[in-house]
Design brief:
Number of helices: 2
Number of strands: 9
Number of domains: 2
Strand content: 35-45%
Oligomer: single chain
Order of helices and strands: EHEEEEEHEEE
Structural class: alpha+beta
Shape: globular
CATH architecture of the largest domain: Roll
């Protein structure tokens, strides 16, 4: 069994799509629109088989995103090496994204960093 995809609602669908394609090399489908439900989405495919569905709907609630809330905590992207973790983290920081955890080796052996994306979600970057 495998996870087919993970989905998340976003306030700005186009900016979210651009973020994931620019920094994480996502490939986007052409999108889906259901005018009756005022719903739009894109499926983003990453290296391998991982997919993320980003969605937007007219009547969404944008609750505060406390990083230690229950539910899904973060999305993690493996970039292939420690050097690439360092490079991408520096690029995101230079582009104005908040780095909440600089690149380091964690107690459980991962080399990773964490940033906050344009919608307030935690993104983990690991080797």
């Amino acid at each position: 069994m495998k996870i087919e995809h993970v989905a998340m609602y976003v306030n700005d669908l186009e900016k979210a799509k651009d973020f994931f394609t620019k920094y994480f090399n996502a490939k986007s489908n052409d999108g889906y629109h259901n005018p009756t439900k005022k719903f739009r989405s894109y499926f983003l495919t990453f290296d391998g088989e991982a997919r993320l569905e980003i969605m937007n709907k007219a009547d969404m609630i944008d609750a505060e995103k406390n990083l230690t809330r229950t539910g899904f905590a973060h999305v993690s992207f493996s970039v292939g090496s420690k050097e690439k973790v360092d490079e991408l983290t520096a690029r995101l920081k230079s582009d104005g994204f908040e780095v909440i955890s600089e690149p380091r080796t964690t107690g459980d052996g991962y080399y990773e960093s964490c940033i906050i994306d344009l919608e307030g979600n935690q993104i983990e970057i690991t080797e």
